[in-house]
Amino acid sequence: MKKDLHPEYKEATFTCACGAEYNTKSTIDSRTIDICSNCHPFYTGKQKLVDAAGKVEKFKRRYGQK
User: Fold this and answer.
1) What is the 3-state secondary structure (H, E, C) of the chain?
2) Domain containing 21 — which CATH number?
3) pTM of the predicted structure, to 2 decimals
4) How far is residue 60 from each of residues 49, 52, 56, 57, measured CA to CA in Å?
5) Confidence bin at 21 (pLDDT 50/70/90)
6) Domain for residue 2, yes or no?
7) I need a labelling partner for 41 at 20 to 30 A (CA). Which of 1, 8, 20, 29 fits?
């Protein structure tokens, strides 16, 4: 392989909004994620409303009960 062509592959920590931390290797630095397998409704079996930028309220205002 050519030198200095590929990005550095290093340790990274991904932290979820629920507080779960995942240590892995990546080409990017540590990041914060919104949802993970510990808090995702598909894996937990609990219904959870994930609202990104007020989209649910906007939907309710537009198509709410009249």
Assistant:
1) CCCCCCCCCEEEEEEECCCCEEEEEECCCCEEECCCCCCCHHHHCCCCCCCCCCHHHHHHHHHCCC
2) 4.10.80.400
3) 0.54
4) 13, 14, 6, 5
5) very high
6) no
7) 29
